Each structure stands twice: as C-alpha cells, then as structure tokens.
Known about the structure:
The protein is built from 4 helices and 14 strands. The protein folds into 2 domains: 2-78 and 246-265, Immunoglobulin-like (Sandwich), CATH 2.60.40.2250; 93-243, C8orf32 fold. The chain is globular, with a radius of gyration of 19 Å. The protein is an alpha+beta fold. Strands 3-6-1-14 form a 4-stranded antiparallel sheet, with no helix packed on it. Strands 4-5-2-13 form a 4-stranded antiparallel sheet, with no helix packed on it. The chain has a 4-stranded antiparallel sheet with strand order 11-10-9-12, covered by helices on one side. The chain has helices at 116-123, 130-143, 157-163, 168-181, and strands spanning 2-13, 17-21, 32-41, 47-50, 56-62, 65-76, 145-146, 165-166, 186-192, 208-215, 218-222, 234-239, 248-250, 255-265.
Amino acid sequence: xxxxxxxxxxxxxxxxxxxxxxxxxxxxxxxxxxxxxxxxxxxxxxxxxxxxxxxxxxxxxxxxxxxxxxxxxxxxxxxxxxxxxxxxxxxxxxxxxxxxxxxxxxxxxxxxxxxxxxxxxxxxxxxxxxxxxxxxxxxxxxxxxxxxxxxxxxxxxxxxxxxxxxxxxxxxxxxxxxxxxxxxxxxxxxxxxxxxxxxxxxxxxxxxxxxxxxxxxxxxxxxxxxxxxxxxxxxxxxxxxxxxxxxxxxxxxxxxxxxxxxxxxx
Length: 266
C-alpha cells in the first residue's frame, strides 16, 4: 500500500535563523521511502545528518522575512494493522538488551521517578507483559481527554496525570512513563498516521505520537490516543520523549504562521 505524507510550514523570521527539522521518514522500518522532495521559498540549502537515535535530521537557515518550507514523500507501507502479540512477555531487567536500558530512565518530559507509586497502585496487580502495557494504554485512553491546544511544548507526563487533558503527544508520554515505572522499556515515537480503515474525525490532519514498549525480543506499538490497531504508520522519529524528536527547532525569533500536514492513501 502506498501513502503520501508531508508537511508545509510558513515562518516569518526577523533575521537569518538556523533550524533543524525532523519531518522525514526514518530510513528503516516496515515502511519504504519511494520518493521525496524538499521545496523552499526562497530556495534554501539543506544538509542532512542522523542523530544519536537514528532519526533523519535536516539543517537549513531561514532568511529574514517570509519562508515557506515544504516536504512531500511517497511511502510504501504494510497493508495490515499494527502487529500484536498478546503473549509477549516482560523481561527481567537483567535480561534486557543494553540498548533498551536507557528507555527505563526518567527523561525531561517523562518523570517516571515522580509517578512510580501511582503506577504501581494502578497496574501492580496486572499480569506482566503485553496485558500490563495494554492496561496502561487503556487507562490513559479512558482517563485523559483529547483537546487541541490543551498543553504546551513543556507539558510533562506529571502535568497530564494531574490535569487529565492533552494531545496525542501527552497521551504517549504518560503511557510510556507508566511503563518505565513498571520496569518496561518504553520510547516515544512520532510520525504520520493516515485515516485508513477508520472514520475521519473532520479535524485537520496533524502529526501523530504514540509509544513503543519492549516485550519479548522486540519493540511493539501502543497508541493510547487511538487505542486501536491502525494501518499506514510512517515513523519519523524515536527518542526518550518529545524533546528528542522535535519537528522543528529554531535558534532565533522566527514565528510559525501556518502549518499543514498530509497523510493519505495514494
């Protein structure tokens, strides 16, 4: 199955402004990048690197005044829904692979050390493994209300625990924080998610966030915002939390005027 994904940002900069972008699909995964293109107005040079988490990052400097940055791609994705394995086991910490250990630690927005007691009170009686992670996703889905604009770029999982309202970023961060409290490695993921096999909400398309938990011998997708298996996910970035995978980082006073995101079956 092919999907078209991309985004367009319009910025106004008071002076030349360096920026870093994470809007391109990751180079590995079940998706396969078929074609892609940048376009900028005015024309801006772009250079690329991979960060410490393997995410594709692009550097470009906005010019003074109006800037239009557009990314468009065609991606091949599996036709099925998110893989699932209800029997996947939770590993003992001593049996985890080295690369998973960092995803047990508290991070900037996922303060698992502050929600440890609450998590064990809620989920301590659940069966370790897939059932426990699904119980966490279910709880977040049922107890947090989705509301656009309800949180800010600095909102933490503790804030969402207290306020019970947020966007998909917040659902993901609270869910993965609870997993870390329960000694389950969990990492933040964001990307494109087309409305394939589901009723469109009518809201403008946007980037989407979910989390992955390490069970058995691999990472598995859990999405507390939607909480149903979905088709067509295209991963852009993975990290400890949203801090590691910001869509755009600007080093200056550039103002975002408009943003448009698309993700649709081709």
